[in-house]
């Protein structure tokens, strides 16, 4: 898997919003706070606050983006939440399939549903599948993710809450590491980040260091051992044209 430093235009797309906690990584869910603020401001899309909602009127948005983009799907929830009907998830996947000029990234803390869907459909080649691993208690997500027939499978180690250097990275193409943000951020130790970086280098996995997070006072920003790590798989291979 080739890594790329090309600056692609990034987008977020939220055909569903809202969620409910599933593990310790959810304790300080940023999306919940934003959704409640938008609800208080009277934004129609968030009239239900952080309750799970589907948005028919958002379905065709990627079809209107003419130039290729990297699209993060559902930054304000989890597309694989059990309250979202299968039929709607299929419609979202169908839009992605039709928009093969874009690459879509689905990050879910419920990859078992992605795996189940992947067994039933032909997974679109322009849809990357990812899950979050914040500590060892959720290693089972890696097993589910490996069953998703995606060209790129990725892990978000964010918020990284403990040492996960013995995680099985078989079948993983990309890993992003980050500490928690916000006023009550839980700390990420430098050795946890280093261990993952070293595993990725040894195993040929693209490594992206996102941020230290709010609880790390000695080394702000997003450098790790004096450099920025912003590798990612090359999206060009999955696009129909550039
Ligand atoms: S899965 Fe994601 S969106 Fe849902 S509650 Fe947890 S952190 Fe928030």
SSE topology sketch:
Blueprint: E1 10-13, E2 16-17, H1 30-40, E3 53-54, H2 61-64, E4 70-73, H3 86-98, E5 103-108, H4 111-118, E6 127-132, H5 140-146, E7 153-157, E8 174-178, H6 190-203, E9 206-211, E10 223-224, E11 227-228
Parallel strand pairs: 1-4, 4-5, 5-6, 6-7, 7-8, 8-9
Antiparallel strand pairs: 2-3, 10-11
Bound molecules: iron/sulfur cluster (SF4).
Residues 19-22, 26, 29, 31-32, 77-78, 109 line the site of iron/sulfur cluster (SF4).
Write out key terms for the chains shown.
242 residues, alpha/beta, TIM Barrel, 7-stranded parallel beta sheet, two-stranded antiparallel sheet, 6 helices, 11 strands, globular, disordered N terminus, binds iron/sulfur cluster
Short characterization:
The chain has 242 residues and is α/β, with parallel strands linked by helices.
Biggest β-sheet description = 7 strands, parallel
Question: How many separate domains make up the residues?
Answer: 1
Q: What percentage of residues falls in helices of 4 or more residues?
A: 10-25%
Strand order of the largest sheet: 1-4-5-6-7-8-9
Mean pLDDT: 93
Number of helices: 6
What is the CATH class?
Answer: Alpha Beta
Structural class by sheet pairing and helices:
alpha/beta
Protein model, in words:
By secondary structure, the protein is α/β, with parallel strands linked by helices. It has one domain (10-238): Alpha-Beta Barrel (TIM Barrel), CATH 3.20.20. It is 24% helix and 18% strand. Strands 1-4-5-6-7-8-9 form a 7-stranded parallel β-sheet. A two-stranded antiparallel sheet has the order 2-3. Strands 10-11 form a two-stranded antiparallel sheet. The two termini are 18 Å apart. Bound molecules: iron/sulfur cluster. Iron/sulfur cluster (SF4) binds at residues 19-22, 26, 29, 31-32, 77-78, 109. Iron/sulfur cluster binds at residues 19-22, 26, 29, 31-32, 77-78, 109.
């Amino acid at each position: 898997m080739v890594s790329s430093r090309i600056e692609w235009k990034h987008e977020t797309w939220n055909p569903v919003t809202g969620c409910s906690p599933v593990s310790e990584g959810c304790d300080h869910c940023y999306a919940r706070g934003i959704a409640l603020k938008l609800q208080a401001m009277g934004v129609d899309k968030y009239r239900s606050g952080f309750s799970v909602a589907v948005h028919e009127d958002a379905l065709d948005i990627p079809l209107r983006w003419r130039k290729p983009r990297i699209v993060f799907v559902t930054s304000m929830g989890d597309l694989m939440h059990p309250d979202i009907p299968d039929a709607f998830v299929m419609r979202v996947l169908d839009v992605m399939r039709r928009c093969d000029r874009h690459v879509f990234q689905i990050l879910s803390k419920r990859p078992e549903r992605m795996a189940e869907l992947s067994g039933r459909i032909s997974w679109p080649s322009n849809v990357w599948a990812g899950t979050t691993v914040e500590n060892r208690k959720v290693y089972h997500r890696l097993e589910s993710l490996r069953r998703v027939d995606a060209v790129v499978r990725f892990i978000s180690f964010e918020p990284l809450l403990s040492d996960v250097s013995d995680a099985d990275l078989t079948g993983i193409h990309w890993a992003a590491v980050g500490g928690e943000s916000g006023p009550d951020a839980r700390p990420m130790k430098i050795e946890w980040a280093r261990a993952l970086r070293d595993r990725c280098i040894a195993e040929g996995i693209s490594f992206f260091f996102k941020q230290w997070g709010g609880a790390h006072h000695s080394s702000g920003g997003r450098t790790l051992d004096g450099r920025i790590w912003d590798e990612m798989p090359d999206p060009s291979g999955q696009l129909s044209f550039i």
